[in-house]
Specification:
mainly beta, seven-stranded antiparallel beta sheet, six-stranded mixed beta sheet
């Protein structure tokens, strides 16, 4: 079995009104004067503060650690992938002495000096998590530890959050800072501070929706589903075969037998009873339902607003819905009037940007604004919800738009960058904020600077990297045809798996 990439389980102000006596005041003044003198004396001494971030590295079959400058922090010498729970903190979890036959292994935590830290436990581990899109991460402020076969939780300073008295501790899948703890065969839920959210009395606990942390699905010992709030209040008794989040704070779908019902947890009653094979989404008084394989809309009072007739149906915004008919997507309103023709392979509403992204072909995407007017067309390369922009490849070049769908220069949006990708005569180069050419137009392709200050450049079919001043960090030499993401830190490039950097 290959072990590569394997995952194991400011100063205070003086208040002179409170300084009693002239003598005390003089002492205080003298101390301030001395402090000022010392500051002046040492003003020529530079205090260098390094804010490093850390990444797992792979070289010659071994794993180590590099920093955001591409410098080696821990020499690649470990057979197993090193886990870095929080890349802003020099705490690295190493696995070693692995026995594949028995499944036994050892772990330790080390710092940037390769010194063992957080000792006193049989094992110390990062707590991994992932979502339905297979995005993988670690809980970034706690670690799982074990002693005498039982598990507990500590923080990054080694302070005990939970004692080692649980048979299992894992992350609640698809959401952060929620941990499932198991004891005496039952599971409960705690947060990253060790505070109990749900007592250990259930067979299993699930998220209602990825990232959602207001209520949780609980499963009883007889496999019945219920709903519980973060305060521990039972909202729906565990008597159902399933529960679904519909996007509403008080409306939930519950399954009884083979049929889905709509429950209002405020009124504590079923308001749509078993008429539909599925209940999909609730927005205001309008509910998307499925009947005989088709989707439509009914109200909370069970009035049919749109007869089930579509192959797919999902809420977009206001009175508009994305619908699928004859294998293609379009937009309808609550009166079932077609607003955008059914001619798209896929269509999604990007809520953070308030726009519709519609794929017409594999290589052409149309962007519609909140008035459903067509604004942009091309290949969507990136939708950055943190910085609020869309990057689109159109007419053989990359263009940037803010979420108002206004075209912007990359320097308008990438405000922390020092260099910007530019194209001329079919070739790529880099310019500074004033538009001055820093790196000539000699590359077949390139990327904008990443958060570490490096950009990737492609020449003669292979990739390399440049730093934030345009100096070559890695001569183009790496074939990345099989990589989805192109990213460099100095001479290190992101692996195909996206889990570590290698060279």
């Amino acid at each position: 079995m290959s072990s590569r990439g394997r995952r194991y389980d400011d100063q205070p102000k003086l208040n002179f009104k409170k300084v009693i006596g002239v003598g005390v005041a003089l002492i205080v003044i003298i101390m301030i004067v001395i402090s000022i003198i010392n500051i002046v004396k040492n003003s020529d001494k530079k205090v260098e503060i390094n804010n490093y971030s850390y990444y797992t590295a792979y070289e010659n079959g071994k794993f180590g650690v590099i920093n955001n400058n591409g410098e080696t922090v821990i020499e690649p010498s470990y057979d197993e992938m090193i886990a870095i729970p929080n890349n802003s903190k020099p705490i690295f979890i190493c696995t070693y002495d692995v026995d594949d036959a028995t499944g036994k292994y050892k772990t330790k935590a080390i710092n940037e000096k390769n010194e063992e830290i957080l000792t006193g436990y049989d094992k110390i581990e990062a707590i991994d998590n992932f979502d339905s899109k297979q995005n993988i991460w670690y809980e970034d402020n706690v670690l799982r530890v074990s002693k005498n076969g039982k598990y507990g939780i500590i923080d990054f300073d080694g302070q005990e959050i939970l004692p080692c008295e649980y048979s299992e501790i894992t992350a609640l899948r698809g959401t952060t800072s929620n941990l499932i703890v198991k004891k005496d065969g039952n599971v409960g839920l705690v947060n990253e501070k060790g505070q109990t959210i749900i007592n250990t009395e259930y067979k299993d606990i699930l998220t209602l929706e990825e990232g959602y942390k207001s209520e949780y699905i609980v499963i009883s010992k007889d496999n019945k589903y219920g709903l519980i709030s973060t305060s521990g209040t039972i909202l729906i008794e565990p008597t159902y075969e399933g529960i679904k989040y519909l996007g509403s704070s008080n409306l939930f779908a519950v399954k009884k037998g083979k049929k889905w019902q709509l429950m209002d947890t405020e009124e504590k009653k079923i308001i749509i009873d078993g008429k539909y094979e599925n209940i999909i989404e609730a927005k205001s008084d309008n509910i998307i339902v499925k009947k005989d394989g088709k989707y439509g809309i009914v109200t909370k009072t069970n009035e049919e607003k749109i007869e089930p007739q579509y192959e797919d149906l999902k809420y977009a915004f206001s009175i508009y819905y994305i619908a699928k008919k004859d294998g293609k997507y379009g937009i309808i309103n609550l009166d079932n009037k077609k607003i955008i023709d059914f001619e798209y392979k896929n269509m999604v509403y990007v809520e953070n940007g308030s726009f519709i992204q519609a794929d017409k072909t594999d290589t052409e995407t149309i962007i519609f604004d909140s008035n459903l007017g067509q604004k942009v067309a091309g290949i969507v390369s990136e939708v950055n919800t943190d910085k609020g922009y869309i990057k689109i490849y159109t007419n053989n070049e990359y263009k940037y738009y803010n979420f108002k769908l206004e075209e912007k220069s990359s320097s308008d949006l990438l405000t922390s960058n020092t260099l910007f990708l530019s194209k001329k005569d079919g070739k790529y180069g880099y310019v500074d904020k004033s538009g001055r050419v820093v790196l000539d137009y000699i590359y077949e392709d390139g990327t904008e600077q990443n958060s570490k200050g490096f950009a990737a450049v492609k020449k003669d079919g292979v990739w390399g990297s440049i730093d934030k001043v345009g100096a070559i960090s890695c001569e183009p030499s790496v074939n990345l045809d099989n990589s989805i993401y192109i990213d460099f830190i100095g001479k290190w490039h992101l692996s195909d798996s996206g889990l570590y950097y290698e060279k």
